[in-house]
Design goal:
Elements lengths: L10 H10 L13 E7 L14 E2 L5 E5 L14 E7 L5 E8 L14 E2 L5 E5 L5 E7 L5 E8 L14 E2 L5 E5 L11 E8 L2 E9 L13 E2 L5 E5 L15 E6 L8 E7 L14 E2 L5 E5 L16 E7 L5 E8 L13 E2 L5 E5 L9 E7 L5 E8 L14 E2 L5 E5 L9 E6 L1
Antiparallel strand pairs: 1-28, 2-3, 3-4, 4-5, 6-7, 7-8, 8-9, 10-11, 11-12, 12-13, 14-15, 15-16, 16-17, 18-19, 19-20, 20-21, 22-23, 23-24, 24-25, 26-27, 27-28
Length: 426
């Protein structure tokens, strides 16, 4: 079943629609946007493939990471690189590898992207081997220096940091580790890194145990009161082991005495029609509603099995307490499938994201949610990948420039078949 892109049904109507198996059609707009491949990764020192998105520095350069490539001596498929893309005087973009990960204590396989501070330093994580949080700092006269801020040397402090980090207003870093924490579950943690006179100190804010979530993979976000919001791809009520449950959305609130934070599950995905397996982060709208995606669920008969193609959901706070979930859009394979990235918003309140598969070539799409009157949304396909020179299988978050152009990465395709960095121009 596919809901219209402008439908936002009540929970009672959702059940009625499911039982009646009524199918609505979505008018997907024609692709008026132009995609330009800015850089195609080669299988070598330049790194490949990019798992997450790119980000801008103050000069308009794009920075990101690849999970493999670079150093093939320490890692059989390469340990990954951090890269910068810059425009030349004659046009076009060129890559500079700003760090080649060496394995061991240097870390390897960064799956997360980079974030920056006000001074122009960039921060990221390596997800395999010696899991690390690192800083890249520009050096006067050119080049970059890399500093490891934290080693995840104790499994109770988490292992496998796969998501982007986020700063608070005091300069502390926050993130999730996909595994570690509770030894019986190995379900992951939420952590804080705070700068001290002797280096950065980790504090575990929350440990997942299965029932309160498991395997967080998405980016965290703050609200104006300093609470954190995120998703756990598995877990839920009654779960005592990691691969139980369909995932949940959670809120973490700081305690007055410091230390561990209080978790409040906002919504559990207990019915696959309403989505399951959220792996991406969330975004707020101006009214305080949360939006995200699940990689599976929704149209359970589509995408070659009973798992579903994934969907877009909205969580709205009720005046009586708690949150209500609405399925904003259910993917149906031809319009996209298996979304794994979060949303980015433009100045008009439109939301953009990607699906890692689906579309005409089953190579993924870029899609747009446009708000309309009455709190409804129109969904349209912005671009469909072909897995050829234009790329394919995008999984990272998008970023917007001041002119409204979108930038992202795709894991496959390009001139060398190893992924691309692309721009989409309205």
């Amino acid at each position: 079943m596919k809901l219209s892109g402008t439908q936002k049904p009540s929970s009672i109507l959702r059940v009625a629609l499911a039982l009646a198996a009524i199918t609505f059609s979505l008018a997907v707009s024609a692709q008026a946007q132009t995609e330009t491949v800015l850089y195609s990764f080669a299988d070598g020192a330049s790194g490949n493939p990019p798992q997450d998105g790119v980000t801008f520095d103050a000069a308009g350069n794009l920075l990101g990471t690849t999970s493999e490539g670079g150093n093939f001596t320490a890692c059989s498929t390469g340990c990954g690189v951090a890269f910068e893309l810059s425009t030349g005087t004659g046009g076009g973009w060129s890559e500079t590898v700003i760090h080649t990960f060496g394995g061991g204590g240097d870390g390897k396989n960064p799956f997360a992207g980079l974030i920056s501070d006000a001074a122009g330093n960039f921060y990221g994580a390596t997800g395999l081997g010696y899991n690390t949080i690192f800083e890249l700092s520009p050096v006067a006269g050119g080049g970059w220096s890399k500093t490891v801020l934290h080693y995840f040397s104790d499994p109770s402090g988490g292992t496998g940091p796969y998501a982007n980090l986020v700063f608070d207003s005091a300069g502390n870093l926050y993130g999730t580790a996909h595994n570690g924490g509770n030894v019986d579950c190995n379900c992951g943690v939420v952590f804080e890194l705070s700068p001290t006179s002797t280096g950065w100190k980790e504090t575990v804010l929350h440990t997942f145990t299965g029932e309160n979530g498991a395997y967080p993979s998405g980016n965290l976000i703050f609200d104006s009161a300093g609470n954190l919001y995120g998703t756990a791809s598995y877990g839920g009520t009654g779960c005592t082991y990691a691969n139980c449950g369909s995932g949940l959305v959670f809120k973490l609130s700081p305690s007055s005495g410091g230390g561990r934070w209080t978790e409040t599950p906002l919504f559990e995905f207990t019915n696959h029609f309403y989505g399951w397996h959220p792996v991406a982060g969330l975004i707020f709208d101006s009214a305080g509603n949360l939006y995200g995606t699940t990689s599976y669920g929704g149209n359970l008969g589509e995408c070659g099995g009973d798992d579903g193609c994934g969907l877009v959901f909205e969580l709205s706070p009720r005046s009586t307490g708690g949150w209500e979930e609405t399925e904003v859009y259910l993917f149906g394979s031809s319009d996209g499938a298996l979304p794994q990235a979060g949303f980015v918003a433009d100045a008009a309140g439109n939301l953009y994201s990607t699906t890692s598969q689906g579309g005409a070539s089953n190579c993924g799409t870029v899609f747009k949610l446009t708000p309309t009157s009455g709190g409804f949304w129109t969904v349209s396909t912005t671009y469909t990948f072909t897995c050829l020179d234009d790329g394919g299988y995008p999984t990272g978050d998008l970023v917007l420039d001041a002119s409204g152009n979108l930038y992202g990465t795709a894991q496959y395709g390009g001139a060398n078949g190893n992924g691309v960095v692309y721009e989409i121009t309205p």
